[in-house]
Design brief:
By secondary structure, this protein is α+β, with helices and mostly antiparallel strands. It contains 13 helices and seven strands.
């Protein structure tokens, strides 16, 4: 029956089988996930809540017994007020337990707890009356007699807790069982899809690719020892040669027209590529030339010179970012030199001063003095700090404050290290994203490349330090940079 089907039908049937298997697997997964979620919600909302209520009932009961004993010891009336408060808690939790109970067995057990508690409360009231009348011996004797009632209620509460504990364990077993079923179904789907894929590959090879290869071999006029790399193109060439034999003039004209169209297309593509390259390269070159010319003007004010320096520095910054993006797979070569991290902080703030002012972001630098020098690449450290400051500006859309704290501390091994904390009062980072923000190409911004923090973390690691994040939603974010001082470079005097 299968052999009677056309090749087109067989390929379509195999593709449909693969599609149905994939869709069915997704639907089953969603259904099982919903069922497991419903079961889990039932456990959390009912059984776990009932278990907690039983715990609180038992605690209130124990507190009542304790306050009764305390009253016997010193007769202070405050113990009676505490006792009354715990009685209200117990009765309230008992009512809540009745509202949430689902099983007849648990309902009957609550009825027994209530009856035993009423009897115990009445007898305890008699004990307290004896104590208040000064008949302590009689009260102590009765107090001792009602102790089994107390233990009985505690035992009933434990039994009530065990019922819900069993329900929770049963729900866990159900979830595990359904997970196993889902795993079995997924395995079966994988096996079935693999078989369908193998069968489809067999049909494509034996009934499509192999016949095409044989036709190409048969149509090849010469050089049979040279392998054919594209059978379809070889057949197409053979057909074109046959058509040339049938109508040589017409085919020669058609071939010439096709070649002309292809030449025009390639010429257009080449012109477009050259124009794009020219449009990108020439404006940047012009900007650099004009900046150089403006920088040599003798009548520039200090503010204008500073602006030109900032613009020139930012152009270099853009080139460095593009270079880092294109060469992300190759770590940058560090140019190490003696530098104070405080100098890099000041340089980064000068570069970003217009950006910070336009974003209405205030910056506070907390330092007792410049940090001691260490071996580092100042340009790479500047990239890290600029990235952190720009990110902070972008998340504080309505403005805010950035605090940069500098200090020298010791690690767990007692080695000196420079610590820089970049804190903002933005919205914070969700806990589930804090471990992902340093991953390459992970970004929460639509226009972001997802490489900024990843490159920053790698630069700090290349310096032997660490870049960590501390954040809570709604309370801002702090990035912590630590840079080690080598033994020979450790500062001799460190302000604490």
């Amino acid at each position: 029956m299968i052999q009677s089907l056309t090749l087109r039908t067989r390929v379509i049937l195999l593709l449909l089988a693969l599609l149905i298997t994939t869709v069915s697997g997704g639907v089953i997964t969603i259904w099982y996930t919903h069922r497991i979620g419903t079961l889990f919600s039932s456990v959390v909302e009912q059984d776990l809540q009932s278990f907690q209520i039983a715990e609180e009932m038992e605690t209130a009961l124990v507190m009542q017994k304790g306050y009764t004993t305390y009253y016997f010891q010193d007769g202070h009336p405050d113990w009676l007020r505490q006792l009354s408060f715990q009685e209200k808690i117990f009765e309230k939790k008992l009512r809540q337990a009745k509202e949430t109970v689902r099983e007849d067995k648990a309902w009957k057990l609550l009825g027994r707890i209530e009856a035993e508690y009423i009897r115990y409360r009445n007898d305890r009231s008699r004990v307290l009356a004896f104590y208040q009348q000064g008949r302590k011996e009689e009260g102590q004797q009765l107090h001792h007699q009602i102790r089994p009632q107390f233990l009985s209620i505690v035992a009933l509460c434990e039994t009530y807790k065990d019922i819900h504990k069993e329900n929770i364990l049963q729900a866990r077993q159900d979830i595990e069982s359904r997970s196993r079923h889902l795993g079995t179904a997924a395995l079966a789907a994988v096996i079935f899809a693999s078989l369908m894929g193998i069968l489809l590959a067999y049909i494509l090879f034996r009934q499509i690719l192999e016949p095409i290869r044989r036709l190409a071999e048969a149509a090849r006029p010469s050089a049979p020892s040279v392998p054919i790399t594209d059978e379809v193109r070889a057949l197409s060439s053979r057909v074109h040669r046959l058509m040339e034999d049938m109508d040589q003039t017409q085919n020669r004209l058609a071939r010439s027209q096709e070649q002309m169209l292809q030449s025009e297309k390639w010429a257009l593509v080449g012109k477009l590529a050259a124009g794009v390259a020219h449009s990108i390269r020439n404006p940047l070159t012009s900007v650099k030339i004009r900046l150089f010319s403006m920088g040599r003007h003798p009548h520039l004010s200090p503010a204008q010179k500073e602006d030109l320096e900032v613009i020139s520095t930012e152009i270099s910054h853009i080139e460095a970012i593009v270079r880092n993006f294109l060469e992300f797979s190759r770590p940058p070569k560090l140019v190490m030199q003696k530098v104070s991290p405080s100098e890099v902080v000041d340089l980064s703030l000068r570069l970003l001063k217009p950006r910070l002012e336009s974003a209405h972001v205030a910056v506070e630098v907390v330092r007792e003095g410049p940090l001691p020098e260490l071996s580092a690449d100042p340009d790479q450290l500047k990239e890290v700090m600029v990235n952190l400051l720009v990110n902070a500006c972008e998340v504080m859309v309505k403005g805010g404050k950035i605090r940069i704290t500098e200090k020298v501390a010791e690690d767990a091994q007692g080695r000196k290290q420079a610590v820089l904390l970049f804190s903002d009062d933005g919205p914070g980072i969700p806990k589930d994203l804090q471990e992902k923000i340093f991953q390459p190409f992970f970004s929460t911004k639509e226009e972001g490349t997802g490489l900024g923090l990843s490159i920053a973390s790698r630069i700090i690691q290349d310096h032997g330090g660490t870049l960590e994040v501390e954040s809570r939603e709604g309370e801002g974010t702090t990035f912590v940079i630590t840079l080690p001082y080598p033994e020979e470079d450790s500062p001799k005097q460190i302000r604490k």
